Amino acid sequence: MSLEIIQTLNPEYTIKSITDEAFRTYGKVIDNNIDEAIEFCIDFVQAAKQDNFYLPSVLEVEQLSSIIELSHRVYGYLEIIAGIVAGDNVELSGIEYHQGSETIIAVTDYILVVGHIWDMQDDTYNSSKCELFYVPKGTIVECYSATLHYTPIAVSKEGFITICLLLKGTGDILEKRKKILKKKNKWFIAHQDNLEKIASGDYPGLLGRKIIIDH
Predict the structure, then answer these.
(1) Which of 37, 50, 88, 116 is the most exposed place for a label (fewest CB within 10 A)?
(2) CB under 8 Å to 103, separation ≥6 — which residues?
(3) How many CB atoms lie within 10 A of CB 31?
C-alpha cells in the first residue's frame, strides 16, 4: 500500500517518507544492493509458514555476501547478528533503544515509528513525541543509537518482513533485569496499556495514546 493511501486511511497521524529531511536526526538511508538478501528472506518466511516471528540471528542471512558487505560498512568490521522479523503488527506497544546502530532492511513496505532518547524522562516517554515514517520495500535504514524504535508496523493485510542487523550480544539474556534494561544492550519500556508485557515484568514507561495504524 502506498504512502498516499496509508496516510488517507490514518488522517490523525502525519506519516512522512523515510527520505524526508525530518529523519536525519534519527538515522539515514543507505544505498547498497541487497536484492540477494531480500530474495532469501522471502523464501525463508514462506517456508516457515508462520505469520509472526522474530529470529534475532539467522546464520544463513549473516553469511550472505550482501549482508557481510553492509555490516562492514555500517559497523566497521565489528561482529554483528542479522535476523528476520515478520508479522502483522499494527501498533506501537512499546519502545526500545540499544548502544550501536540498528540497521533495518525492508523486505516489504512498512512504517517505522521513532523518537529521540533525549526526550525520555525518568524512564518514561510520551508517544505524542513519536514520528512516523513510511519505508518502501528494498530500503536500508540505519537507526542511530539515540533513536527510540520498536517492531515495524504493517501497511497491508499481508503483514511485513524485515531483516535486522545489530551488534553481536544484543538481546542476550541477562542474569537479572535492571528496570528497563531487559536484555543485554536492550532497554525497553512497554506502553501503559500493554498489560501482558507489564505482567511479564516490563516497565510501563510509554505514556500517551497508543499509536495504531489502519490499512
Answers:
(1) 50
(2) 30, 70, 71, 74, 140, 141, 142, 143, 164, 165, 166
(3) 7
Domain ranges across the chain: 3-171
Give the CA distances from residue 128 to residues 111, 134, 170, in Å, rounded to whole numbers and listed in that order.
Answer: 16, 18, 28
pLDDT confidence of residue 79: 98
Amino acid at 83: G
Q: CA 72 → CA 8, 65, 141, distances in Å?
A: 39, 11, 15
Query: For residue 181, is pLDDT > 90?
Result: yes
Name the pLDDT band for 48 (thresholds 50, 70, 90): confident
Q: What is the pTM of this model?
A: 0.96
- Alpha carbon distance 5, 37 (integer Å): 28
Q: Where are the alpha helices (DSSP H) in the chain?
A: 3-9, 35-48, 59-62, 65-75, 195-199
- Residue of 31, 95, 38, 92 lying closest to 64 (CA atoms): 38
* Residue 23 cell numbers, joined: 529523519
The burial of 199, by beta-carbon neighbours within 10 Å (0-12 exposed, 13-18 middle, 19 or more buried), is given as exposed
pLDDT of 132 > 80? The answer is yes
Identify whether the C-beta of residue 150 lies closer than 8 Å to the C-beta of residue 187. no
What's the pLDDT band for 49 if we cut at 50, 70, 90? Answer: confident
